[in-house]
Design brief:
152 residues; mainly alpha; 6 helices
Length: 152
């Protein structure tokens, strides 16, 4: 069992938690033959509104070229399709196909059930989610204050 430092390094603790949660998510999604990256796309596009690739890349935590390859595979698997944006014909919006909607629904039920169980183990899952959102916002604001010369 790894030792825990006496003075916790927040980034290290968060990285460990993120890796374990994503590994658990991958196992849950594997039951539907879905990857974490595919799930991230499905979970955003599943709202039925259509989303541009830039927004999906941000949500999926993927660089644009990698997302394009993933979406190409998802199109070939008949999970999503591209449509021109009716307000800006230069943009393409991604939508779920009926097959993608089915996968999204099944995977969403599995993911939700597992996350409920995991948060019950933690105790106050709502407080944890709120604190993580606050931490993310504070880190983002603080990063902007530091300026580009300080950041890698």
């Amino acid at each position: 069992m790894p030792s825990v430092p006496s003075s916790p390094d927040l980034a290290h603790l968060l990285s460990h938690a993120e890796r374990r949660v994503v590994r658990r998510l991958a196992a849950v999604l594997a039951e539907e033959d879905c990857t974490v990256e595919e799930w991230r796309v499905l979970s955003l596009v599943g709202d039925g509104r259509g989303h541009p690739m830039s927004e999906i890349a941000d949500h999926a935590l993927m660089p644009a070229p990698s997302l394009t390859k993933l979406v190409d595979r998802m199109v070939a698997d008949n999970l999503v399709h591209r449509r021109p944006d009716p307000h800006d014909r230069r943009r393409v919006l991604l939508h779920l196909t009926p097959r993608g909607e089915d996968l999204h629904g099944r995977a969403a039920r599995r993911v939700h059930g597992d996350q409920v169980r995991l948060l019950e183990e933690v105790g106050d899952g709502a407080a944890l989610a709120s604190l993580l959102a606050q931490l993310s916002a504070a880190a983002e604001a603080r990063t902007a204050d530091l300026g580009p010369s300080v950041l890698p």
